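Deliverable D5.2: sample structural annotation.
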Amino acid sequence: MTTLRPRIELLTDGYKQKILQEAKDIIHTQGVMIENLEAQRLLQEEGVNHDDFKYFIPGDLVEKLLAHVPSEITLFDREEEETIHLSADNICFDPGSAAIFIQDLESGDIREALSTDFIKFSKIVDHLPNIEAQSTAIVYSDIPKDAQDWHRLYLALLNCSKPIVTGTFRVESFSIMKDLLAVTRTSEKKLAEKPLAIFDACPSPPLLWSNLTTQSVIDAAKCGIPSEFVSMPLAGSTAPITLIGCVTQHTAESLAGLVIAQLAKRNAPIIWGGSPAIFDMQNGTTPMGAIETMMINIADAQMGKFLNLPTHAYMSLSDSKVPDAQAGFEGGMGAVLAGLVGINMISGPGMLDFESTQSFEKLIIDNEIAGMVKRFVKGITNYGEPFAKDILKDYDANISLLSHPTTLKLFRKELYLPFSVDRRQIINRQTREFWKSEGETSARQRAREMARVLSNRPPRRSLDESLRKELDRIVNDHLG
């Protein structure tokens, strides 16, 4: 049995090699600004030249350390079951981080989020079959600011069993977040053996690794927790206007992060990711749904694959302010293109308005988009030859192929069956008459109702009471 998988590429191997070489030249001759003292010490111990906090990383050090980076990462859920394999062209989806607004499920208004919104969001993600990872997707305002990063991880662990994409807002938060994860696994050793979370690390363009971001990479490397580099060059503003120049800067920034992680600990797991964009010259915004932004992401991911690393991108989101047609075509195009490239972790389901807003309705709709993308990239399967002749010879005017043995055996493999909740689906394939009898609802209306139902359902897996008490203890100790 063979499968014909659809693919897309923008860069040839020759251009990948040129971009890689130029990126290495940039961090060697122009240097990278490193604010973190521990990273400075690690680089100095390797004999890396520097001018104040600008470090000139030689290409041979990059090549030496690149050989130590794992080419794949396996993530486990809260109950320690293998869930996600970040390798080759496998794809999975997570909602992305970290929106500061929520679209109210009842009124539709955009407002600051509360912890109750995040709890509802996490519960919904727990039930969506095509969103394999959760994320600390919303920054809510009803807890102290210095607790906003680790408290989101706490609520995520309580309300959803899927692996988590998260990150720190303060250097001091990492140890608290590590404790929450370690107690869930029962030990730091077990956490390293069966990773439950990914920590995003976002260098500041152009060519700056801040103290906070760098410390997160170092701390995660020491604990065996995967770091996901989210380089954010903005073409025409904080990066060259040319798409290929933007990709080259992204490569340079990510290579510097790779060096830091591997100096902290050899074989530290990292994900080659990003959230680049073009700068909109008319509106002064950062459109994540622009086709050029998607092209940069595609090329960035190709560079990660060229280096044999797990990949990530923000490519299933929209700049629309509501879940409308624009949200559908931008999110859908991004998801399909990401699938065709084989980006391992695709962030963005639910996101609107330049990554600032999460929408329950869009999250539900994006779950269907993700399911269709996964079916698409499975491609066309050859189950054996001849392809149709033996099936058709069994057909006559009195027999339907609906009951043919191959139909019964293979229809669940060949067809994407939309997600159902109480026999209701987002994708409408009913007759017009039936649709009218059901209330003539739009996809957005059906998504809103589905979100209400899922947010009130019990979790797929109940949380062990002793674990809950341990998580509560850690949180109470730090909230004071």
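Annotation notes: Residues 160 and 386 are 46 Å apart (CA to CA). The longest strand covers residues 82-86.
The annotation will be released with the project's public dataset once the embargo ends.
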